[in-house]
Amino acid sequence: MADRLLEGKHILLGVTGGAAAYKAVALASRLTQAGAVVDVVLSEAAMRFVTPLSFEAVTRRRAYHDMFALPADIDPQARAGGVLIPHIALARSADLVIIAPATANTLAKLAHGIADDLVTAVVLAATAPLVIAPAMESHMWEHPATQANLAALRARGVVQVGPATGHLASGASGVGRMSEPEEILAAARLVLARDGDLAGRRVVVSAGGTREAIDPVRFISNRSSGKMGYALATAARDRGAQVVLVTAPTALPDPYGVQLVRVESALEMRDAVLAVLEGADALVMAAAVADYRPVQVSSQKIKKAEERLTLELTRTPDILGEVADLRAAGRGPRVVVGFAAETADLLANAQAKLRQKCLDLIVANDVSAPDAGFGVDTNRVTLLWADGTVEPLPLMSKEELARLIWDRVQRLW
After folding, report:
1. How many CB atoms lie within 10 A of CB 77?
2. Is the peptide bond before 101 cis (omega within 30 degrees of 0)?
3. 346 band by pLDDT with thresholds 50, 70 and 90
4. Cβ atoms of 72 and 60 closer than 8 Å
5. Angle between helices 398-412 and 227-237 (to 10 degrees)
6. Is 105 marked active-site?
């Protein structure tokens, strides 16, 4: 499916000689599926692991490896004295350059400006941003020379993704495993979003359902999956915002390029949200924060002895209420968006919350609906504005809804 950030972008994917080169085929495929125009350049060593044909099959474009072979659709501006220059042509066409895997040898070349093959020559000639995904054996990764080369590249603005810790080609386990294609894809989005319409904005998003402890084993919680909050954080990142995601426990992967603050209870959520609000342009409270918590938390597991167990509950902090007080004192975020998850009287309950919490916008959804409640990938909501406007929306994916909510936040800004 086409990606709004990647669609039509010209991505140059450099593949160098590591065992992780097989992952680069999957990366090229994902980039192409997202709508990018992908040109692959392989080093001679890379072709010991994968073939140009593998990349041509997934990108439907020629893959390059010969320093002196001319690209078929070369940029006419790449002529120099009537001679076509392959690495200049490829470099000039790129919106983004990715090197995956980036071996220790390749990192050393890039750090020192060596251009002795098509991959390194293209990087040296390119003015587009550069993303590298290092992959090597742990001792090579930890060597001071490799770390110095990486530091030099990062100082020039190169974006580094990984490496991860895991099973290595040597048979050992340790740091040096190339990041997965999805993470590299997220890094590409992050780089391309630098000039997005939310660039320069700092936003805070909350997600997930809080857990209120009963004893060391048990807790009270709710059915929130965190999917809506994570979609909001990712959508803001993909439009250039600096994003802080305050999240209760979820089963979702960490969004790349987002500052993550992990919490469990409503009290922890309250403290974390208030701690990161300084300088925020917007707060979007998508978390399902518990309304009540046990008055007493047992220090030991409660044994099954009695027929009944009675818990005394007390109210949890009103996070949005405290944020409203901050804003009244001139210290809160410019825009605050809340969520109202209801099972009855949707609009009446949402409008009451909108007024009581002094929100700019509230997103009301009926969580009893099978296609729009907790844990599903779609949502059907109604937006209620502080000025009385009511905007019902059709069923859509949570990713689509997240983008739409940021459109509305921009309108409020």
Report:
1. 10
2. yes
3. confident
4. no
5. 60
6. no
Q: Can you point out the beta strands (E) in 178-311?
A: 202-207, 212-213, 219-220, 242-247, 259-262, 282-285, 292-294
**Tokens at 61, concatenated:** 């474009």
CA dihedral (301, 303, 306, 307) positive or negative = positive
* Mean of the per-residue pLDDT values of the chain: 90
Q: Is 321:275 a contact under the CB 8 Å cutoff?
A: no
Say which of 222, 349, 365, 379 is annotated catalytic: 222
204: which strand partners?
A: 244, 283
Q: Nearest 5°: phi and psi at 77?
A: -70, -10
Least confident residue range of 75-84, 134-143, 155-164 = 75-84
Report pLDDT for 57. Answer: 95
* Residue 74 pLDDT greater than 60, yes or no: no
Q: For the chain, which domains are there?
A: 10-192 (3.40.50.1950), 197-412 (3.40.50.10300)
Taking the C-alpha atoms of residue 6 and residue 265, their distance in angstroms, rounded to an integer, is 38
What SS3 state is found at 339?
strand
Q: Which residues contact 9 (CB under 8 A, 6 or more apart)?
A: 35, 36, 37, 95, 96, 192
Tracing tokens 């060596």 back to the chain, one arrives at 114
**Structure tokens belonging to residue 286:** 């998508």
